[in-house]
């Protein structure tokens, strides 16, 4: 597990380290400069021409200190101070005076050429839009030839949301300090950041713990939390999953979800679908138990028995948006009490009921007796919460937190999928790639989460690990097959590599 800080949280960690623990700010600045200098020398061992562009805040002070260290190693460094900020910070003034004592003067104009362009203009504390002279200089820097490096965060990127505040620096590399930042992880900020390297500069663990960042991500170490198989066990030990999926001409969603659930360790998978899907699903996935229906009346009658059988239920992949799908969603909410995953058309059916002012469905949702996980993509989330897609995409974390609560977990699917129960730190997924942006990928995710639930994982952990493993499987598939032509079925084929 690795914390990811917002801009405000990072400022608090910095302030606590300085004011409460007593580490001088100038010491942290020097360590930041040393960390950047080491990274740059490793990447560009031959002396290069460097232009460092600053404003008069602490981010600029980091840039001045970096330049001094690079000069000592033989790099040809030029400094350009924009000077649009009326007052310089104390640490910036100290660094500028040191350069002056060494006989270094700042440029009057932005140099024309350089091998490395380093943005030390604005840091994570930026809240206003970039305008005026700062915007003009950033525009010029973006047009320059050469390798672009951002100090801590590209100027113009909101450190807490990843949104662009008017205009942003386009970096090839961002060297950030202490913790990764939300603005470097979420898009479009992630695009502006380029490659991100996190450097330890000595923020004490006590400072991080005091602030307690509200977001985190997973690393390979967290795979140790996957459900364990027991030597003394049988198929019943690993749960009975009822998967309500598929409709006429939509058998693929049921197949992908069911296969992914088995690949994720579920002991028994029972697919509840229309009779038209029986033959194809039995040939594709013979391990699954099949319960099929031909009429609405038969579906409602058989569904009650299936709900009683299940220890975990997943509903939605490929069920369509029909009167029957809405009735099935309501029935599950009314009669089930086990962990429940609602995906795709299950979410659309629920949103449709709410739009029809079906108060019973909303009451059943709010009072559901078990833990519930909803896995909407942005359009489904829009239908569910009544916000536009653009509003949601601009505020992914807060949207997920506002929609979730302790009993209802939201898995908001996007390039960076967000998992929240409204209380615990928000999970931001860092695995996966754009090759996974294909039909059926979400069905596989539903199956993985259901499989982990069946194996005994806590719902929040099943959602987090499910998203993480789903992305890792996509990364392994892309590594061998490439991004183009990647199919959802490939994810299940590589899932076993991740889990093992």
From the structure above, extract its key features:
500 residues, alpha/beta, 12-stranded mixed β-sheet, 6-stranded parallel β-sheet, 20 helices, 16% strand, elongated
Uncertain segments are: none
Q: Biggest sheet: strands side by side, in what order?
A: 7-1-9-18-17-16-15-14-13-10-11-12
Distance between the termini: 19 Å
Percent helix among the residues?
Answer: 40-55%
| Largest sheet entry | 12 strands, mixed
* Overall body shape: elongated
Give the C-alpha Rg: 26 Å
DSSP strand (E) fraction?
15-25%
* Overall SS class: alpha/beta
Number of strands: 18
| Total number of helices | 20
How would you sum up this structure, described in words?
- It is built from 20 helices and 18 strands.
- With 500 residues, it is an alpha/beta fold.
- The strands form 2 sheets. It has a 12-stranded mixed sheet, sandwiched between helices. Strands 3-2-4-5-6-8 form a 6-stranded parallel sheet, sandwiched between helices.
- α13 packs parallel to α15.
């Amino acid at each position: 597990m690795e914390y990811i800080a917002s801009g405000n949280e990072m400022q608090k960690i910095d302030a606590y380290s300085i004011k409460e623990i007593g580490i001088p700010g100038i010491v942290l600045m020097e360590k930041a400069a040393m960390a950047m200098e080491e990274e740059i020398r490793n990447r560009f061992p031959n002396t290069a021409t460097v232009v460092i562009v600053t404003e008069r805040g602490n981010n600029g002070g980091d840039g001045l200190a970096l330049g001094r260290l690079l000069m000592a190693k033989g790099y040809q460094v030029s400094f350009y101070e924009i000077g649009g900020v009326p007052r310089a910070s104390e640490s910036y003034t100290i660094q500028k005076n040191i350069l002056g004592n060494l006989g270094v003067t700042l440029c009057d104009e932005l140099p024309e050429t350089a091998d490395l362009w380093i943005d030390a203009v604005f840091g994570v504390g930026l809240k206003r839009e970039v305008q005026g002279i700062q915007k003009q200089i950033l525009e010029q820097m973006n047009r320059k030839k050469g390798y672009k490096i951002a100090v801590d965060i590209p100027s113009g990127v909101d450190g807490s949301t990843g949104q662009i505040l008017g205009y942003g620096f386009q970096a090839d590399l961002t060297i950030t300090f202490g913790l990764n930042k939300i603005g470097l992880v979420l898009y479009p900020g992630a695009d502006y950041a380029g490659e991100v390297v996190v450097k330890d500069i000595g923020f004490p663990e006590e400072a991080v713990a005091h602030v307690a960042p509200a977001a985190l991500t997973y690393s390979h170490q967290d795979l140790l939390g996957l459900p364990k198989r027991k030597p003394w066990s049988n198929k019943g030990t690993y749960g009975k999953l009822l998967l309500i999926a598929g409709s006429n001409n939509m058998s693929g969603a049921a197949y992908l979800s069911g296969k992914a659930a088995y690949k994720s360790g579920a002991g028994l998978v029972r697919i509840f679908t229309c009779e038209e899907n029986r033959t194809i699903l039995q040939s594709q996935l013979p391990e699954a138990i099949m319960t099929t229906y031909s009429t609405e009346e038969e579906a409602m009658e058989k569904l009650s028995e299936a709900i009683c059988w299940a220890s975990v239920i997943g509903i939605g992949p490929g069920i369509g948006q029909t009167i029957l799908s809405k009735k099935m969603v309501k029935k599950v909410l009314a009669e089930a009490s086990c962990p429940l995953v609602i995906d795709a058309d299950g979410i659309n059916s629920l949103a449709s009921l709410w739009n029809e002012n079906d108060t019973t469905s909303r009451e059943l949702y709010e009072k559901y007796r078990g833990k519930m996980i909803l896995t909407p993509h942005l359009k489904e989330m829009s239908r569910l919460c009544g916000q536009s897609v653009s509003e949601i995409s601009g505020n992914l974390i807060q949207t997920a937190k506002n929609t979730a609560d302790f009993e209802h977990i939201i898995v908001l699917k996007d390039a960076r999928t967000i998992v929240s129960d409204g209380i615990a730190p928000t999970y931001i997924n860092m695995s996966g790639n754009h090759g996974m942006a294909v039909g059926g990928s979400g069905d596989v995710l539903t199956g993985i989460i259901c499989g982990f639930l069946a194996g005994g994982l806590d719902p929040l952990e099943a959602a987090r690990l499910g998203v993480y493993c789903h992305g890792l499987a996509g990364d392994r598939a892309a590594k061998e097959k490439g991004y183009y032509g990647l199919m959802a079925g490939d994810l299940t084929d590589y899932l076993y590599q991740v889990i093992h």
